[in-house]
Amino acid sequence: MNVVKTAIDGVVIIEPRIFEDERGYFYESFSQREFEEKVCNTVFVQDNQSKSTYGVVRGLHFQRPPYAQSKLVRCVSGRVLDVVVDIRRNSPTYGKYISVELSDENHRQLFIPRGFAHGYAVLSDEAVFQYKCDNFYNKESEGAIAWDDPDINVNWQLAAEDVVLSAKDTLNKKLSESVTPFDYNEKLY
Fold first, then answer.
1. Is the entire prediction scored with pTM above 0.90?
2. E-assigned strand segments in the chain
3. What is the dihedral of CA 20, 23, 24, 25, to 10 degrees?
4. In the chain, domain spans
5. Which residues are designated catalytic?
6. Contact 180, 87 (CB under 8 A)
7. pLDDT, tens only, 81-90
8. Which CATH architecture does the domain made up of 44-182 adopt?
9. DSSP secondary structure letters along 139-177
10. 15 C-beta neighbours (distance < 10 Å), count
11. Residue 123: strand, helix, or coil
12. What value does the mean pLDDT take over residues 70-85?
């Protein structure tokens, strides 16, 4: 696998080696050994999958300690814009975001360390999204930031009238109105 650094330290794009022939293609989507060597020494304990239609925005979500999660995400069908926001106080990139298109055509994955909010927007008619987590989900530890926080100013590549949110995500506050549970100088692993 090829690991591509992004503008935010620790957040990386993973591109698999794809073997194609007349039958189709094959690639190794995950190797714990190679992941630990090239990305981060963590063990994933839960896999999740969601299916959504065009315009759905899920996020920007995170889990508070001690249930903070790293995620390894990919889109196995369709196309999404994946967004990661640094919410670690005192970080040189605090409040900044990166976005990466993930699709069933480019086979890219994105690693999101603990200390970041995460979300994605569906750009195709429908998309199936999978993600690995290195900590178990805990409802009481849920945290979120408004998808349309003007201070972060994410370009979701959707018209505002096309955005579809869950009822819960319509209530999310701006980052400046939230108490972030992460500090850049705190060891999260």
1. yes
2. 2-5, 12-15, 19-21, 24-26, 46-53, 57-63, 71-77, 79-86, 88-89, 97-103, 109-112, 116-122, 126-133, 142-144, 182-183
3. -50
4. 44-182
5. 61, 131
6. yes
7. 999 999 999 9
8. Sandwich (2.60)
9. GGGEEE--TT-TTT----SS-GGG-B--TGGGGPPPGGG
10. 14
11. coil
12. 98
